[in-house]
Amino acid sequence: MIYLAFGSNLGNRWENIETAISRISLFFDVKNFSLVLETAAILPSLAPSGWNLPYLNMMVAGNTSLNPTELLSSLKNIEMEMGRSLDSPLWSPRIIDVDIVAYHDLVIREPKLSIPHKEIENRDFWQYLLLNLGCQVSHSVRLNMEKFSAMNYFVLKPKLVGIVNVTPDSFSDGGKFFDPNDAVARIEALRQSGARLVDLGAQSTRPNYVEISPKEEISRLAPVLEHCGTMDYISLDSYFDEVVKYAMKKSRLKCINDQNSRLSNETIKLIADCGIKLVVMLQGTDISWLEKRIKYLESLGMIRKNIILDPGIGFQKTKLQSLEITKNLGKIKELGCEILYAHSRKSFISFFSNATAVDRDAETLAVSDFISHTADCLRVHNVEDHMKFFVAKHQLENGVFA
Hints:
The chain has helices at residues 13-24, 68-81, 124-132, 145-148, 180-192, 214-228, 241-250, 265-273, 287-299, 319-327, 329-333, 361-371, 383-398; strands at residues 2-8, 29-33, 36-39, 55-63, 97-103, 108-110, 113-115, 152-154, 159-165, 197-201, 234-237, 255-258, 277-281, 307-310, 338-342, 377-380. Strand 11 (234-237), helix 7 (241-250) and strand 12 form a beta-alpha-beta unit. By secondary structure, the chain is an alpha/beta fold. Strands 9-10-11-12-13-14-15-16 form an 8-stranded parallel beta barrel, surrounded by 4 helices. The protein folds into 2 domains: 2-154, 7,8-Dihydro-6-hydroxymethylpterin-pyrophosphokinase HPPK (Alpha-Beta Plaits); 159-384, TIM Barrel (Alpha-Beta Barrel). The protein contains 13 helices and 16 strands. Helix 6 (214-228) runs parallel beside helix 7 (241-250).
């Protein structure tokens, strides 16, 4: 087995690692992923204070037909394509760093290539990630496991999408983040907990909701977007053209969540031109509607990799229909787009629980686990517990304990 290490401490660290892993798939067959571990930067004593940025680190295990020299060259090309200057100072921050940690049982000691990697015994977090993949390359290092118990752990998959409702009347958290300061604090907390996106909305879509005007929606969003202007992980939950255009001017939106497919062709073309992802919700239960909608969006300039499908749990569906769609999510997956599954605390959970909406996190987590191998993104209120759960599950199923 071949082991590659990925590290990023500049820009959108999650996206950098995911992009690099996607690009190596052209020549590297990934068999397994490690956990994602956040570590402090390794720096020389006189390094500039601006270099002291935490890293996200992970490893993948797999195979390739490339020999070690060819593999190293391909990895360096990916680093350069993603914007890393190979002439930058040693230990300086980097968009992406990809290293060959081990290549089967080979031992190579050359000026530009060392296998196993020459730093393996100095980077205990690499040792930990190798153990997480069920491998121990170096037997000369004894890990201080107590040190790792205090670190932050994440999983790359499934992607968790946090929810921030700037509303007084959402069904399970209405009013909790209506104050802009509370909303901003929650966005930052969700990101720290490992949310890949934060879905920000100011229009309640609970059952029997009363729709507010675009002007009112913008007034709720404005102070939050003012703070989030440079964040590149915000998804806007809105179906009004005016609101979407306003938010696109004020922030670096990653995604638009158009629950009712009410956005105009003009706005969709604008979204497509900007390379922003668009979430499309299944209206009713006919999956062929999604297939037609995808083709229509493509005719307006959207590319398929930027179209995300939402099964629409709880929208225009009975509880039984929501459950049936959940159990047959693979049929939507066959359409070739990412799936965002938005089920958190919703009423169909009452099929197997009598808890009120705000107390349905455990049941939400059970459903998340059930569909985690099919859905790409899980839109949930409780990102913190979801991340803890999937980290523990990964450790038990894949790591040294497996």
